[in-house]
Amino acid sequence: MKYIALLRGINVGGKNMISMKAIVPMFESMGFKEVSTYINTGNIFFEVDGSGGSGGSGETKAIDKVDDSNASIANGENDRTDETGQAFANNKTDKAKASDKADARSETQETHTLALTERIYEGLQDAFNLDIPVLVKEMDEIKAIADAIPADWTNKENVKSDVAYLFPSIDSPDVVEALPFTSDYIRIIYTKGALLWSLNMTDYSKSRLNKLVGSKLYASMTVRNVNTASLLGIAKDISEIDPDYKSEKEQMIHRKYGEKTCFIGCKCSTGRTFKPKPLVRRCCQNFINGRE
Q1: CA 109, 113, 114, 118: dihedral to nearest 10 degrees?
Q2: Same domain for 218 and 250
């Protein structure tokens, strides 16, 4: 099964600095497959096979046992029905079995996801000695969240549109009412697993979006702009989407310093000062991707 781990609050303002290049081997050492990352805000794609971790084949067998038990009970009830009511009883039982099975699998998957979250959180502590909140979601949910973003929402200089991925403790439609926003100036959408909002920057103060950072809710979400959220829902490898794609940071650097530039922090042979130098683009790209 495919997942994405969203790390909260890394590489921001010089705090909780983690190189994405170091994340990949850490995840692989934990037995995860097909590990890759997207930009340095902490978006890690990985896969878990059917036998690895909690929620593997053992839990599937447990569900099947429940299903078998339900089937036996259902058969006993069916034996007591007359021939006329047999078809109705069978249909009712089949629906009940399907519902029970879906509920059991949903509960098992939630348990599996929580177990993965705990493993990754502990792995980050051991590898980097940092307390990093981790949110693990199935790729299907990430794609559904991306699909919920209105087509006309953008993230430009005059418009701010974000996706706040919600931790389980606040993942409910009721969270909208608890936000400190002024709804007249900001558009808000709840979808399972996330809050989406968009506003004109001229209304930023009136919207009270800035009040979110100081609220209790803020600690239970991790925010990405809609451009990033949309891309996360499409593919795990950005080059599969658009080989010429440039991140917002890269666009800013190239607008300011030109297309072929190296930026602060790049540790290539000549990038030793705070002044950008006219180097090959690959050097700049390495910095953008967090491979400093």
Answers
A1: 150
A2: no
Q: Do both 215 and 150 map to the same domain?
A: yes
In a domain, 170, yes or no: yes
- Asked if residue 181 and residue 205 are part of one domain, the reply reads yes
Residue 202 lies in a domain: yes
DSSP 201-262: GGGHHHHTGGGSTTSSGGGGEEEEEHHHHHHHTT-SSHHHH-TT---HHHHHHHHHH-SS-B
- The domain that holds 157 is classified in CATH as 3.30.70.1260
Distance of alpha carbon 114 from alpha carbon 165, whole angstroms: 15
What span, in angstroms and rounded, lies between the C-alpha atoms of 270 and 239? Answer: 27
In terms of domains, do 203 and 255 share one?
A: no
Domains: count for the chain: 2
Phi-psi category of residue 218: left, alpha or beta, with phi > 0 → left and psi -120 to 50 → alpha: alpha
Q: Tell me the C-alpha distance between 11 and 287, whole Å.
A: 13
Nearest residue to 209 (alpha-carbon basis) of 180, 178, 174: 180
215 and 181 in one domain?
yes
Residues 226, 255 share a domain: no
Q: For every one of its 292 residues, what pLDDT tens digit does the chain have, with 9 covering 90 and above? A: 999 999 999 998 888 999 989 999 999 999 999 999 988 899 999 999 865 444 343 333 323 333 343 343 334 444 433 444 555 455 555 555 455 555 556 667 888 899 999 999 999 999 999 999 999 999 999 999 999 999 999 988 899 999 999 999 999 999 999 999 999 999 999 999 999 999 999 999 999 999 999 999 999 999 999 999 999 998 544 444 444 445 555 555 555 555 444 443 343 333 333 334 333 344 444 444 444 3
Residue 218 belongs to domain spanning: 143-232
Classify residue 99 by burial, with Cβ atoms within 10 Å: 0-12, 13-18, 19+.
Answer: exposed
